[in-house]
Amino acid sequence: MLHRVRSAVAHLVSSGGPPGSGSSVLPTPASPNPIAHPVAPRSPPAGAERGTRASGGAVENRGSFSRPTFLQLSPRGLRRAEDHAGRVVQSPPDTGRRLPWRTGYAEVINAGKSRHNEDQACCEVVYVESRQARMGGPGKSISDQDEHMAREQRNQYAVGGCCALVAVYLLGKMYVANAGDSRAIIVRNGDIIPMSREFTPETERQRLQLLGFLKPELLGNEFTHLEFPRRVQPKELGQRMLYRDQSMTGWAYKKIELQDLRFPLVCGEGKKARVMATIGVTRGLGDHNLKVSSSTLPVKPFLSCFPEVQVYDLTQYEHCPDDVLILGTDGLWDVSSDKDVADTVDKVLSSFEPNDPSRYTALAQTLVLGARGISREQGWRLPNNKMGSGDDISVFVIPLGGAGSYT
């Protein structure tokens, strides 16, 4: 099965859609081992879409735009999905086959920051076919795919990268692997159980600084691994200023030296935090060709493809139909706290009968609508008049018990 997991991740990041995107075949809810994993690839720049020649001689456009097959979008529906002004929320249709376990899904395109929806999602059922599967699970699958992308980028000059959030159910346990700034939480009986964390320059500051300290050649003569409260000015040479390095969680004073005038390896705060003034996510796939602006310094050595994997044992608890796993891209979490999401779970699911098959899709739609907000003259706004999310938003809602159980 792990080979199939690697294959699913590979298809998502290399072709922009799930395996068999030209087929109407969907997994059946009766199958025992589904996978649900949203993957958020960044769109390639204009002119970067290149075709590769398949073994049969046909040209395959691996950079062509697509949406998840399970949305079953018509050509007209696809055009609506790409409307940055209307930002219509898309979900699988009520008719036809449903996602495994009655999983709910909803997505919406960004407000115009890129041409296409940068998120991509896949939900599959796979089976264990061999006892000789390689060890490592979803974490190994993601790192294997990063190596595959490196080969493609060398051979075809494919550019770009993506975050990855993968949930795999196997033998009574849910494995959640995250590399990037998407996140997952479990809401169980009203309690919130984090199943991942964001990987940003702020959360991984010490790892980045340690690498810069051990391998100063990666910084060239342009960056310093030290962090200061603000950019050091030449007139401050010889003065004392607060700083911190890879071993410090607090601050101390040091005398400013000439090399301290270099740009800090980690700069900015919150969503504006950057590594080498270039990228705001520190784990993910791809970006092997990414360089610092106006420089030849590569950024990839500071970016890790290895996900953090958390395991949740479903056999340890008696789950009810209102217990769910929420997978969301950063477009959701930028404007919604864990408590906001948990409150929405309680509000929406309590308004449906436990055996209603549409309740989880309705929840996913409500979460996406709540993060998107309403279009006003000042842009997309939340009910409290704060800015709504202008990013792409994708949400999976996976029930952990009741009518949507896995057995």
UniProtKB/TrEMBL annotation:
GO cellular component: mitochondrion
SUPFAM superfamilies xrefs: PP2C-like
SMART domains, sorted: PP2Cc
Domain of life: Eukaryota
One Pfam family of this chain: PP2C
InterPro entries: PP2C, PPM-type-like_dom_sf, PPM-type_phosphatase-like_dom
Alphabetized PROSITE patterns for the sequence: PPM_2
Composition-biased stretches (Polar residues): 63-72
Region ranges (Disordered): 1-100
Any GO molecular function: [pyruvate dehydrogenase (acetyl-transferring)]-phosphatase activity
Domain PPM-type phosphatase: 102-400
Name recorded for this polypeptide: Protein phosphatase 1J isoform X3
